[in-house]
Amino acid sequence: MLQRFLDPSVLAGISGLDLVAKTVVDGFISGLHRSPDFGFSQEFAEYRAYNPGDDLRHVDWNVFARSEKMFLKRYRGETNCQVSVLLDASRSMKYGSRGMEKMEYAKFLAASICYLAHLQRDAAGLIVFDSEVRQFVPPSTRQGQIMRLLHGIDQAQTGAETVLEKPFAHLVDYLRRRGVVVAISDFWENPETVLKTVGPLRSRGNELILFHVLDPQEIQPKLRGPVLLEDLESGAKMEVSPDYVTHEYKGKMSAHLEDMKSRAAGANIDYFLVDTSRPLDEALRQYLAIRAGRL
Amino acid sequence: MGFLNPWFLGGLIAVGLPVWLHLLKRHKTDPQPFPSLMFFEHREQSSVQHRRLDYILLFLLRTLMLVLLALLFASPYIRRLTPKGRGDKLVVVAVDRSFSMRTKEGTSSRLDLAKNEALNVLSKLGPGQKGQVVALADTLQAMTQQTADPGELRGAVSAIKESDARASFGELSRYLRTLSESTKTPLDVHLISDLQKSGMPPGFTDVRLDQDTDITFHEIGKPQPNWAVETVIAPQHIYDPKRARISATVTGFSAPAATRTVTLLMNGKTIQSKSVMVPENGRASAEFAGLDQASYGFNRCEIRIDSADGLAADDRYAFSVERTDPKKVLFVDDGQHPKAQEYFRAALNATPDSAFQLEPLRPDVAANSELSKYAVVVLNDLGSMPSGLEQALQKYVTAGGSLFEAIGPASAVAFPRAPVLDEAIDGTSYASREGERFFSVSDVDTGHDVMKSVERFDGVKIYLAVNVGTKNSRVLARLSNGKPLVLERKVGEGKVLAFTSDFSAANNDMPQHYAWVPFVQRSVAYLGGSGSGEQPTNLSVGEYVELRTGNEKGAQAEVQDPDGQRVLSLQDAAQARNFELTREGFYEVRTAGGKRSLIAAHANRKESDLAIIPQETLDLWKATGSSGPVNASGQGTGGEGNTMPWSLSPFILLLLLGVALAESVVADRYLRPQAQPQETKAA
Q1: Residue B676's closest chain A neighbor by CA?
Q2: In chain B, which residue's Cα lies nearest the Cα of A221?
Q3: pLDDT band of B478, cuts 50, 70, 90
Q4: Which of the four pLDDT bands, split at 50, 70 and 90, describes residue A194?
Q5: Does the beta-carbon distance from B48 to A239 stay under 8 Å?
Q6: How many Å lie between the alpha carbon of B22 and the closest alpha carbon of chain A?
Q7: Looking at chain B, which terminus has fewer C-beta neighbours within 10 angstroms, N or C?
Q8: DSSP one-letter code for A230
């Protein structure tokens, strides 16, 4: 039953990104039966002697009443990292052959990750980009952060073509703490260029996760006859025969995906190919598997 | 170029379909968006363009096919010059060869003069100009086809022979109309004739000519007085030569009063001569009584006059007379009704020269007689039938004999079924004194020969009638109670006529009524073969002699012309139903039924009237064919009339078939390469 709700086309019918994220994540967590390896509640960690300048809101006044000494209460959650979601809003993300655009799927995925981070008290941030950084929500754990993130994701509009260099350079400026960077894009770029751009983030100790969102028609197009195709980003047009698509394109696409995968693995970057026809929780499961293993 | 059905050109709208399919649809195809063309190459475009070329060829062929189809339905034509437009003319020389053309003009006949005139007309034909020679009588005989050979035309004129038929200008006009319509060529007609007034049809419209028919009249001969034997009234059969009478009418056409000697000849011998005074433009009759010299069989007779005019052929009138004994009628009477025989004989001998002779016999004697020698056997209400008589009668009728039986009260008691007629007898109908008192005749088949002169039996009273069945018989007269009075049935080759009362006046008043004589005479004549259905033997040239009635399958007929030559081919002798008399004289005829006769044919006496057609009538006749002048360029006053539509449909149809074939080939070639690579690669 839940699986039905996680179907992308069903999710697309739900209005409100927050509701979608809740549906995906809550349902998904329910399906995990609260695994003991995964704890995200406010778990007590230790007491620390008060030092001048510490925030008085964290003083344990019960201990002070008994011992007249001021101790600060520390929780495990406060030791978490930042989660930065990079959402590609280039024009190529507007493509969708099954009634659902890649951009929409990517939004659901980004919202779900942000919501999941919010539940874990991770400081989640958002960068929406195409050739420029269109939107930026700095990572934070403050109250209302989740709504800011969801609003930012909701407001994201497909714009120009994809240029990875600028947003990633921008991200480098803001990521002062080590954290997790989740990049959601169709990566219509040379794999070498992609890895070259995102590679510096990994070298700073960040966990880097690439969600490669592609429509099934992109992976294996099916044409009935010769058609005129128009590049969504450049506007270039080209007549294409079914013969070519069936054989040569398929080979080139497979090589491209394999190249992406191998290069990401080589750079110690997690890479996931996300087919928009597949349920959303598959991508989340992969994401959480990484988080559980490494954080 | 024009179109017979221009509204079909609306079908050209259908051309929009391939235009849309091949051109507009392709151009309007929106490019399909795709995220990136990173992995596509431009070399694919060439193959698509190649297919486009195929498409364009296919498009052109399909468009052409639709255009041709629309044109085909619209029936395009071009106008071509008609023979009239080209200034061509067909010269028709019509030479009258009717009976009146035998008239002498000096030393030559009118026909000779006409033929000379025809040759004169033909000599004026231009080189290469087509002509045709026709001979005119009651029918038109084309002596040549349309030809430009002067020798053939002159030969045809020389071959025209005199005829005994009458002239029919109506027939000539009908032929000219047909010729004009079929050839679409203006006709230049030269009618060479004595232009007899009697040759004109009753209605002037029958001689109207088509437009572009120009007729020129060449009158041959001059009006002259003529005397002719117009009619002869003679009996076809004579039974008593002394009582035979012959009447001849002599007529003077445009002739002064004159005395003419009328001579009766029989088998070449002069029998009698008489002088009659023929008034100016009037008639006179000559009566000849007694033909004692007539021999048994057919006699060739002729009435002649001494006119000494130009047309000697109509001074004699041939007719035939057959001398024969009266036919025997056997009256079988058992003596119970003595008055019946008296009444029957009186009715049969009511005419001076009766064709029948009554011979009464008692039934037992009749049973042993040879019935085949009697033309008719009459049974007078027999109360008993001797052994063998009924079988003899049955055999006699089946072989072609005729039986006339009165089925009265005696027969009703004696026989359960009417003899030979073989219809059930179911008692009698008796008009009682208290009831109807008498029956009248209410329903008469007046179309039957027997019933033609009986005046519907008006006033006849029937007191008692026998109820005879009508299962296989035709009822000729019915009583007021619906029962039959007179019945007829064909038995084998013969006929049976039945009267359901008696001839003795005991049970009806028929014998005392005026309908009795014609009833008996016509009944016996009908049964004995001397009725109105008998072939007349004195006919005019152009009339037909009946050779068979349709029942004599396979039997041969035979006709010998006045020269004694057989005129029927073997096929005609076996199949021809009739034969046309084409010349004067005596024809010996044997019909398919075996009946022999001598037919006398004489020319139609309308030909004896040599009065010519008034000039006003000729002018009117000529005017019906005028159509205005033709100018030097060959274009007449009406441009439409000089051209005729020439259909282009056959050529368009051929072209359409070719285009359809090409379209099939191109379409097949286009479809084939698309399927093959897929199969190859899939394999």
Answers
A1: A243
A2: B34
A3: very high
A4: confident
A5: yes
A6: 14
A7: C
A8: E
**Chain B residues inside the 8 Å CB shell of A130:** none
Q: Say whether residue A250 is in contact with chain B using an 8 A CB cutoff.
A: no
Task: Give the number of C-alpha atoms closer than 13 A to the C-alpha of residue B321, restricted to the C-beta side.
Answer: 26
Separation CA B482–CA B442 (nearest Å)? 8
List the single residue in A94, A228, A253 with the smallest CB-CB distance to B31.
Answer: A228
Q: Inter-chain contact B681–A243, Cβ cutoff 8 Å?
A: yes
The pLDDT value recorded for residue B83 is: 65
**Residue with token string 């073969």:** B529
> pLDDT class for A29, splitting at 50, 70, 90?
low
DSSP E strands in B425-563: the ranges are 425-430, 441-444, 464-468, 474-479, 484-491, 494-499, 538-540, 544-546, 558-560
Looking at the complex, report in whole angstroms how far the Cα of residue B47 sits from the nearest Cα belonging to chain A.
8
Q: What is the DSSP string of B541-553?
A: TT-EEE---S--T
HSE-CB of B344 using CA atoms within 13 angstroms: 27
Q: CA A192, CA B405: separation in Å to the nearest integer?
A: 134
pTM of the full structure: 0.53
Report pLDDT for B54.
Answer: 61
The pLDDT, as a whole number, for residue B11 is: 77
Strands B32-34 and A227-231: parallel
Query: What is the average pLDDT score of chain A?
Result: 77
Chain B residues with CB-CB distance to A227 below 8 A: 31-32
Kind plus residue range of the DSSP H or E element containing B505: none
CB A239 within 8 A of CB B44: yes
Who has greater pLDDT, B24 or B136? B136
Among all chains, which residue has been given the structure tokens 């029937």?
B462
CB contact under 8 A, A238 and B42: yes
Measured distance between the N- and C-terminal CA atoms of chain B, rounded to whole angstroms: 59
Q: What is the ipTM of this complex?
A: 0.76
Nearest residue in chain A measured CA to CA from B46: A239
Distance (Å, whole) CA B248 – CA B233:
6
Under CATH, domain A2-34+80-294 is a member of which superfamily?
Answer: von Willebrand factor, type A domain (3.40.50.410)
Q: What is the mean pLDDT of residues B55-61?
A: 81
**Res. A41 pLDDT band, cuts 50 70 90:** very low
pLDDT per residue over A111-140, tens digit each?
A: 888 888 887 777 888 988 887 888 888 888
Name the residue facing B35 among A232, A246, A252 (closest C-beta).
A232
Banded pLDDT at B298 (limits 50, 70, 90): very high
Q: Which residue of B has its CA nearest to A215?
A: B35
CA-CA-CA-CA torsion for A223, A227, A232, A238, nearest 10 degrees?
130
Question: Under an 8 A CB cutoff, do B35 and A236 touch?
Answer: no
Residue of B nearest to A237 (CA): B31
List the single range of A2-16, B113-127, B378-392, B663-677 with lowest mean pLDDT: A2-16
> Looking at beta carbons, which pairs linking A170-176 to residues 24 or more positions away fall under 8 Å?
A170/A127, A170/A129, A170/A133, A170/A136, A171/A84, A171/A86, A171/A127, A171/A201, A172/A200, A172/A201, A172/A204, A174/A84, A174/A125, A174/A136, A174/A138, A174/A139, A175/A82, A175/A84, A175/A201, A175/A204, A175/A206
CB count, 10 Å around CB of B313?
17
pLDDT tens digits for range B366-413: 988 899 899 999 999 998 888 889 999 999 999 889 999 999 999 988
Looking at chain A, the domain(s) classified CATH 3.40.50.410 span 2-34+80-294
Min Cα–Cα distance to chain A from B657, Å? 32
What residue ranges define each of the domains in chain B, with the CATH number in brackets?
A: 2-80+648-682 (no CATH), 90-223+612-623 (3.40.50.410), 226-324 (2.60.40.10), 327-528 (3.40.50.880), 538-601 (no CATH)
Size of interface A-B (CB pairs under 8 A): 76
Residue type, B527: L
Given a contact cutoff of 8 angstroms between Cβ atoms, the answer to whether B576 and B557 are in contact is yes
